[in-house]
Structure formats: C-alpha cells, structure tokens
Write a structure and sequence with these properties.
By secondary structure, the protein is an alpha/beta fold. Helices cover 40% and strands 20% of the residues. Bound molecules: S-adenosylmethionine.
Length: 225
C-alpha cells in the first residue's frame, strides 16, 4: 500500500499522547462521550478529542464568542466542548444530517447544564447555512463532508461578523492533500488553496491532530457589550 495514500496520522502517536497528557482534561461528560464514541461507534476517528476539544474551548474564550455555528455534530463532543466555554447567554447551532448521530448527541446534550445553549438542526448543512442571516456568527467550526468544504467556507464567510473566526478541521486530511487522488482529497487540497489565496481573511494552518485551518475574517470586531 502507498503510505501517503493510507489514512496516516500526521502527528506522531507519541506526540499526540504527550500533548493529551499535558492538556487539562475536559469535563466528565465529555470524557464519557469520548469513551462512548471510541467504543460504540464505527467512526471513532471522527471525534476531535481532548487536545482539539480544549483548543476549541480556548478559542471560544479568547474570541469572546457568543454565537457559534458548527457544521457536523456527530456524537456531540465538539458542540458540548464549545458550549461549556460559552457564557450563559451564548448559543451554538450545530448541524448534522444523520438522524442516528443527532439522537446520540441530543441525549448527551440533555444531560449537561450547558446543553440548553445548543440547538441541533437535522438536515443538509449547506441548505441550513444558506438560511442563516449574514454577519451574525462569531465563530464557525467546519467538520463535515469534505466535498462541501469550499461551499461551507463561502457560507461561513457570509454569516460571520467582521473579525469572526472559522476553524476548519481535517485540513491535513491524513496526508492525502499532498497527492490528492480521490474526490474528497482533491476537495480538501482545493479548499486549502482557496483559503490561502483569499484576501478577505488572515490564516494560520495549524498541525494539531489532523490539521486545523484557523481563519479570521478581516475587519474590526465590534466592541464587547
Ligand atoms: C467528523 S464528524 C463531526 C465530529 C464532531 N464535530 C466532533 O468533533 O465530535 C462529521 C459529521 O458530519 C455529518 N455530515 C456529513 N455530511 C453532512 C452534510 N452534508 N450535512 C450535514 N451533516 C453532514 C456526519 O453525519 C457526521 O456526523
């Protein structure tokens, strides 16, 4: 098998484990969701996990975010991680088209005092994003089907306020972006080039886990209330 074309962890396992050990653990419920996802779902690699979860929480804190949109809920881990970091009046709209994933996530949200900050919209992400008002979101987390990343990016730029953040997960796509040979890998490679060339944004490509493209929509953030 061509190594580049297998699903390859980009960060050495030893470094991942070291990073996790040196990162503040998340809440007991998030640890439970992680365990559930690793043992009871067929797609454990879709979970962001402790390091990325804590990174999302810090981004929410540092950005002073109150209004978040997440594309791709899965078992609810990243949505709940961000909800825990939001102030009491903060809100997350999270989107997933899979009814089974949605139900699992809702069951976990119900068990958290921060679950009331989360609204789950079940359906196709692009159509739901297109129905959202412009310029309202403080932060968008893109973490769903790779073929639509470019379209999600354009909608995210529209719904973000000036100075708002986009975090796009799996920007390294397990190394497949280096020699893209299938539709998803080409879509991710093209997405990264599109972002790189976009004069509307400042960008930082982070090699955390499977890569996070951190993007700030240019413009002055409104003063904090
Ligand atoms: C990588 S998982 C999200 C992981 C989650 N953010 C976390 O960290 O725990 C991607 C999710 O996107 C959902 N998804 C894929 N394509 C979608 C689409 N076109 N519209 C809405 N949801 C979609 C899948 O059902 C899956 O649950």
């Amino acid at each position: 098998m061509n190594r580049i074309y297998s699903y390859m962890d980009m960060v050495a396992k030893e470094a991942e484990e070291y990073a996790a050990e040196h990162t503040t653990p998340l809440s007991p419920l998030l640890e439970e969701i992680e365990q559930f996802t690793l043992t009871a779902t067929p797609y454990p690699s879709m979970l962001t996990g402790r390091v990325e979860g804590r990174f999302l929480q810090l981004m929410v804190h540092l950005a002073g975010a109150r209004n978040i949109v997440e594309i791709g809920t899965f078992t609810g881990y990243s949505a709940l991680a961000m909800a825990e970091a939001l102030p009491a009046d903060g809100k997350i709209l999270t989107i997933d088209h899979d009814p089974e994933h949605a139900q699992i996530a809702l069951n976990f949200f119900d068990r958290s005092p921060d679950g009331k900050k989360i609204t789950l919209h079940q359906g196709e992400a692009l159509a739901i994003l297109q129905g959202l008002p412009a310029g309202q979101a403080d932060l968008v987390f893109i973490d769903a089907d790779k073929r639509n990343y470019a379209a999600y990016y354009e909608e995210s730029m529209r719904i973000l306020r000036d100075g708002g953040l986009i975090l796009a997960d799996n920007a390294l796509w397990y190394g497949r972006i280096f020699q893209p040979r299938d539709e998803e890998s080409r879509a991710m490679a093209e997405f990264n080039e599109r972002v790189k060339a976009d004069g509307r944004a400042e960008k930082l490509f982070l090699t955390i886990r499977d890569g996070i493209y951190l993007i700030r929509k240019k413009g002055a953030a409104p003063p904090l209330p």
